[in-house]
Amino acid sequence: MSQPINQLPWEHADWFDRLSTWIEQQLASHQRSMLEPIQLVHQRPWSAFAQIQTNQGMVYCKAPAPAFHYEAALTQALADWQPDCNVPVLAIEPTQAWILSADAGTTLRQLGQNLTQLEHWYALLPQYSELQINLAQRVPALLALGVPDRRLSQFPTLFRELLNDRQHLLIDQELGLSSSEYQQLQALAPMVQAQAAQLAEFGLPETLTHEEIHENNVLYGERGYTFTDWSDCSVSHPFFSLLVTLRAAAHWLKLDEHGPELQRLRAAYLEPWTRFAPRSQLDQAVEIAYRLGMINRALSWRQALDGLDPAQTQEYQDNVAGWLQDYLTANTA
């Protein structure tokens, strides 16, 4: 567990001034000038985000929290490796992990909460799969950038470490695990190991996995679809992405999570993967990945919250326990 962080970077008195100076310098180097003052859109435990109206369109600046410091270098690498579907990076500040990027379109959330949005998802999910497939060959480079290593071979150990971190499990506290649930999860350690081994047997390449492909992290514009906000990611099984994507689509579009629309989304995502295995095997792999993905989400929330003062993260403290409860329910129902 990390040492407590008394202040997030953007809580320091001079942070915004330093950020503003850097942004202005980088805009000048790209022959852009500000038309309005820098607007700080939000400050959250995992990032701060600003937008700047310039003479060449909107520009955005993200400052990840220390736990996600790798996001800056990763975002730059993705823009270099596959610029067609990643944000156009203008500059990064490697020490602070600041990311300055040009406008790449409108979020799907901004396009509206209607079923016509499904057509976007049917089109973009195969593109995301292709990105994952292309990045599988870059696993060593991704790990060198600091992307969390959650490959299946690591999963049993990661699960044990997670259960040993009682601080984030809130055992016998409101919204946390009960002692009974904690004991049941401990007893499921052999199942986690077995499921990881079963999933590995399908032979699908582990790769970069964006864990929050939802309507607010996909942009649509003249260049097509752009995937953004890579803080919650890992080198892991590609199908872990489907957990949040399908749940978020069901919630946002008010659909049955097991209905035909979601089944079609799943099929759209899986189509590019048929070059590795028949569809019937892919469906089996999804069922296992959907469950292990719940542990992966718990690991991500632990990463986001670790080292922060509970007062800074109070409304999110139950997420580690919550995802583990989902895993427990999925495997004991």
UniProtKB/TrEMBL annotation:
Q: Which domain of life is it from?
A: Bacteria
Domain Aminoglycoside phosphotransferase residues, every copy: 100-276
Q: Which SUPFAM superfamilies match?
A: Protein kinase-like (PK-like) (SSF56112)
What would be one Pfam family of this protein?
APH
Tell me the protein's name. Aminoglycoside phosphotransferase domain-containing protein
- The scientific name of the source species is Herpetosiphon aurantiacus (strain ATCC 23779 / DSM 785 / 114-95)
Question: What taxonomic classification does the UniProt entry list for its organism?
Answer: Bacteria, Bacillati, Chloroflexota, Chloroflexia, Herpetosiphonales
